[in-house]
Design goal:
The chain contains 11 helices and 13 strands. It is α/β, with parallel strands linked by helices. It has one domain: Ribonuclease Z/Hydroxyacylglutathione hydrolase-like (Metallo-beta-lactamase, Chain A, 4-Layer Sandwich). Strands 7-8-9-10-11-12-13 form a 7-stranded mixed sheet. Strands 1-2-3-4-5-6 form a 6-stranded mixed sheet. It is globular, with a radius of gyration of 20 Å. It starts with a helix and ends in a 7-residue tail after the last strand.
Length: 338
């Protein structure tokens, strides 16, 4: 390949990553805060580019995907993913389908990717894990990622690289790219406890109840200015309340039973699916119990099940929660900042 061709391809890669980033950033800036309900508290900001003010630090939470379940939503919600920005460094929890585009929509250029966390190995939480890392690598800018998650994460990583082996090895030779397999470090664990720690944050895990999967975890991020807990997928789990004690924000999954019953009435596998949903997810009343016991200041409802029924209102999502929790309740929406 000639030097001119290399320069031309590098220019195309830069253009491809820059144009969508700018256009999507503009969309997020002009999204109305009035479309976001947090049931009485001041409306959370919609995500904008954190680099607009290079002095901005601290801990920020941006909901990238708030839909539970593996299907692709028809009402604008993406699959599960949450961004925690700590001193402008991205920490992404779960990689449901669409997470790459949601990061761009939130104003985060993909080459900034640094830390990934997977709560458990259901597809709505890890389907775009390999693709997100690939999309960061293909920007052509230096990238280094540490990925954390339960057993199986290393194999998931290796399988993705094998799946894309032809493309990756072709681009390494033809485009002069670094080998991406050397740019990601996988950290597996099989029990709750310390996950990672650096000068900005301590991350710990708690095993939650999501049968039949036994290796399912919540994460807690403790920083100098905020403590944030993300439940992952779980049924009612009292140990999670202990884990979240003293946290400012709890992002918890939720399932609205009347809408589930409506959905199941239309499905041929209703009996088996209902058994799974009731055993593996949390009803609003139980979410309220967890938040009240933990004493958190703000409860964010995310991973909404079902997440693509527009007839369910924010009030309906929160009514059961209020029976036990009197703090601030936020019904999550994609690209909402908490």
């Amino acid at each position: 390949m000639t030097a001119n061709r290399r320069e031309f391809l590098a220019g195309l890669a830069t253009l491809a990553t820059t144009l969508p980033f700018r256009s999507m950033k503009a969309v997020s800036r002009f999204t109305s805060n009035r479309a976001v309900s947090n049931l009485g508290a001041s409306a959370p900001r919609v995500a904008t580019d954190p680099l607009a003010d290079p002095q901005t630090g601290g801990t920020r939470i941006i909901l990238l995907g708030t839909k539970g379940g593996p299907s692709v939503g028809s009402t604008g919600r993406s699959n599960a993913a949450t961004l925690i920005l700590i001193n402008n460094t991205p920490y992404v929890v779960d990689c449901g389908y669409g997470v790459s585009r949601q990061l761009i929509a939130a104003g985060i250029s993909l080459e900034r990717l640094r830390y990934l966390f997977i709560t458990h190995h259901h597809s709505d939480h890890n389907l775009e894990y390999g693709s997100l890392f690939y999309n960061a690598w293909i920007t052509g800018r230096p990238v280094r990622v540490d990925a954390y998650g339960p057993e199986g994460l290393r194999k998931l990583t290796e399988d993705f690289f094998n799946y894309q082996k032809f493309d990756i090895e072709t681009r390494i030779v033809d485009e002069g790219r670094p080998d991406p397999r050397r740019l990601i470090t996988v950290h597996e664990f099989s029990q709750a406890g310390m996950v990672m720690r650096n000068e900005d944050v301590k991350v710990t895990s708690c095993r939650v109840l999501h049968p039949p999967i036994t290796q399912a975890y919540a994460y807690r991020f403790d920083t100098p200015d905020r403590s944030v807990v993300i439940s992952g997928d779980t049924t009612y789990a009292p140990p999670l309340a202990e884990f979240a004690k003293g946290a400012e924000v709890l992002v918890h999954e939720v399932m609205y039973l009347p809408a589930i019953e409506k959905l199941l009435s239309q499905l041929p596998n209703a009996k088996r699916l209902r058994e799974h949903l009731m055993a593996a997810h949390t009803l609003p009343e139980d979410v309220g119990r967890i938040a009240a016991t933990a004493g958190v200041k703000t409860l964010v409802l995310s991973h909404l099940v079902p997440g693509d029924d527009p007839s369910v209102t924010d009030e309906q999502w929160a009514d059961g929660v209020r029976q036990h929790f009197s703090g601030r309740i936020v019904v999550g929406k994609d690209l909402m900042e908490i």
